[in-house]
Amino acid sequence: MGARAIIEWHQPENELPALLQRNPWLSPGTFLPALADFVQTARETDHAPSAELFRGWAAERVPYVLGEDETRDRMLFLRPGSDVQFHYLVQLTEDDQPAGQALRVTVRERNLFHPGAGGRWEVTHQAGTDEELFELAAGLLERQAARIRRLTAEGRGGPMPAAHEVADRAAQIRARISRPAEADGRDHEAAGSVTA
Questions:
Q1: Mind listing the pLDDT tens digit for each residue in 37-72?
Q2: pLDDT at 175 over 70
Q3: Distance of alpha carbon 25 from the chain centroid
Q4: How do residues 122-152 score in pLDDT, each as one tens digit?
Q5: DSSP labels for 73-138?
Q6: Which band of pLDDT confidence, cut at 50, 70 and 90, is reported for residue 18?
Q7: Distance from first CA to last CA of the chain, Å, rounded?
Q8: Are 20 and 69 in contact (CB under 8 A)?
Q9: 49 CB-near residues (< 8 Å, 6+ apart)
Q10: What are phi and psi of 25, to 5 degrees?
Q11: Which residues share a beta bridge with 101?
Q12: Which residue, 121, 101, 1, 4, is CA-closest to 54?
């Protein structure tokens, strides 16, 4: 059973979504870490993390994140009766972030299988800054690594990535988060340079 998803990406200069794709299998634990990696790459090269750049980056590095471009009205997939479980709303907005624009992401999930849920959407994850996105992505990967360890210890589960590889990726993303200079005398520049 797939985690069917819609990625909807908006940019200040466009009224319509700059990217609207339907993916038959795209869980938050896959999409948000990929988005965090993309944002880091864009910031390192002093680019705003646009939909165009994301499409090219993902095609080269994580093609499984991309789906099929959707030409129908996005509201078709958000109404009751749709089989879409996850809605990823990505908004590029003017802000004081590097490159002058902030990327905000909201993940909504619809419980299609719980009796009485009625297909209502619920916001499950939100990030309004790069650092919030990094924190969110690292946390998802850390929970995934813990689950893999538990299933492996119980002798359950099918093919899975190695828990230590998932945990290492979480640590790499978490290392991007700026931390205030600590009382041990480290200077502010060193503490803040991890997100540049």
A1: 999 999 999 998 999 999 999 999 999 999 999 888
A2: yes
A3: 14
A4: 999 999 999 999 999 999 999 999 999 999 8
A5: -GGGGTSTT----EEEEEEEEE-SSGGGEEEEEEEEEE-SSSTT-TT-EEEEEEESSHHHHHHHHH
A6: very high
A7: 39
A8: yes
A9: 38, 39, 42, 43, 92, 99, 101, 103
A10: -155, 100
A11: 94
A12: 101
Rounded distance, CA 172 to CA 79, Å? 38
Confidence of residue 183 (pLDDT cuts 50, 70, 90): very low
Q: Are strands 68-69 and 19-23 parallel, antiparallel or unpaired?
A: antiparallel
- Is 130 exposed, middle or buried, given 0-12, 13-18 or 19+ CB atoms closer than 10 A? buried
Q: How far apart are the C-alpha atoms of 8 and 20, rounded to whole Å? A: 5
Nearest-CA neighbor of 65 among 154, 3, 1?
A: 3
Residues with Cβ < 8 Å from 193, sequence gap 6 or more? none
Which range has the worst mean pLDDT, 7-21, 91-105, 140-154?
Answer: 91-105
Angstrom distance (rounded) from CA 24 to CA 76: 16
| Apex 114 CA angle, 112 and 118, nearest 5 | 65
Check the CA dihedral 10-65-44-164 and report its sign. positive
- Please classify residue 85 by burial: count the beta carbons closer than 10 Å to its beta carbon, then call 0-12 exposed, 13-18 middle and 19+ buried: buried
Q: What is the pLDDT of residues 67-89, one digit of tens each?
A: 999 888 777 887 777 888 999 99
